[in-house]
Each structure stands twice: as C-alpha cells, then as structure tokens.
Design goal:
102 residues, mainly alpha
Length: 102
C-alpha cells in the first residue's frame, strides 16, 4: 500500500499550500484586494485537491478489501492516524478561509 503513503504525502503538501495561501490572503486583504482574493481562491483550489486525493485513498482501500480482504491492522491504524491529522488541519484551514470571507 505504498500508494496510500504517496497520496498521504501529497495531501499534506496540499494542506500546507492551502494554509500558506489563506495566510497570504489575510495578510494582503486590506492592501490589495485583487491579490488577496487570488490567494484565497488558490487556497480553496488546494483544498479541492485534498478532497480528490482523499477520495483516491478511500478508493485504494476499497479495492484492496475487494482483492485481498481486510487490510493489515497496522496499515489501518496508520491510515486512521493520518486521516485524523489531515482532517484536523483541513478544519483549521477552513476556519481561516471562513474568517477571510468575513
């Protein structure tokens, strides 16, 4: 299931970028509305990438179950840990995005 680790790494990259963009949007909101809105839009797009990557992880696990039965316990524990971590980070970013929208 190395592909799930790769997908998870990409999710973390997208979350990092989404956070950086929304931070930039908030920084420039009062000074340059066009640039600020661009950063906010890019942040939202990154979160869309997160959703697509997460959907692929879910599909990969589903296919594994269909072909091999239940995944190993350790693998699912790792997935659960990363999923919680990613979900918490995504919620934190969405709060910032909502704050930006006012």
């Amino acid at each position: 299931m190395k592909i799930i680790m790769c997908l998870s790494d990409k999710i973390e990259e997208e979350l990092h970028d989404a956070d950086a963009y929304i931070e930039a949007a908030m920084k420039w909101k009062d000074e340059d509305e066009d640039v600020s809105n661009l950063f906010a839009e890019l942040s939202a797009e990154e979160m869309g990438h997160v959703e697509k990557l997460h959907a692929e992880v879910v599909d990969q696990i589903k296919v594994y179950r269909e072909e091999h039965g239940e995944p190993p316990k350790g693998m699912m524990e790792l997935y659960d840990h990363l999923h919680r971590k990613h979900t918490e980070e995504a919620m934190r970013i969405k709060v910032k995005q909502n704050m930006y929208k006012g």
